[in-house]
Amino acid sequence: MIGILLVLVGGAIGSICRFWWSGVVGQRLGETFPYGTLFVNLVGCLIIGIAGGFLDKVPGVSWEQPMRLFVSVGICGGLTTFSSFSLQTMNLLLSKRWGAAVANIVFSTIFCFGLVATGWWIGHLA
Q1: For position 93, what pLDDT does the model report?
Q2: Integer distance in angstroms from the first to the last C-alpha of the chain?
Q3: HSE-CB of 99 using CA atoms within 13 angstroms
Q4: Residue 118 and residue 91: Cα distance in Å, rounded?
Q5: Left (φ > 0), alpha (ψ -120 to 50) or beta: where does 59 sit?
Q6: In the chain, what percentage of residues exceed pLDDT 70?
């Protein structure tokens, strides 16, 4: 139950930050390019990288898993799932699973965009 609460609170924080930061960045830089989304993806990747690197150095301490849930799953999950994709790809690279890392990058990019396009098309049929 504590894990769910940590993800819930962290996710709320991340979602609020996404809404606010993407709006502020979009207002300042314009909406002709998704600068706000790019900004939150970059920030989320930095945060999850810092958390992952730090928590990797302290395995087994009592607060490691709760902190991982709160920051990586909660805050970064609410802020951007691109950060999770990036951390998972980094972990594949660190474990020298080169093919899996490249496959994750290629398939995620192609299939995710393809499914957005498919969903868009289906949405227009309705």
Answers
A1: 96
A2: 40
A3: 0
A4: 30
A5: beta
A6: 99
Distances (CA, A) of 98 to 48, 57, 59: 21, 23, 25
What one-character DSSP code corresponds to residue 63? T
Whether 39 has a pLDDT exceeding 70, the answer reads yes
Rg (CA), the chain: 17
Residue whose entry in the numeric block shows the structure tokens 């093919």: 99
pLDDT digits (tens, 9 = 90+) for 70-95: 999 999 999 987 888 898 899 999 99
Query: pTM of the prediction?
Result: 0.76
**Contact 83/11 with Cβ under 8 angstroms?**
no
Give the phi and the psi of residue 96 in degrees, each rounded to 5. 60, 35
How far is it, in rounded angstroms, from Cα 79 to Cα 21? 10
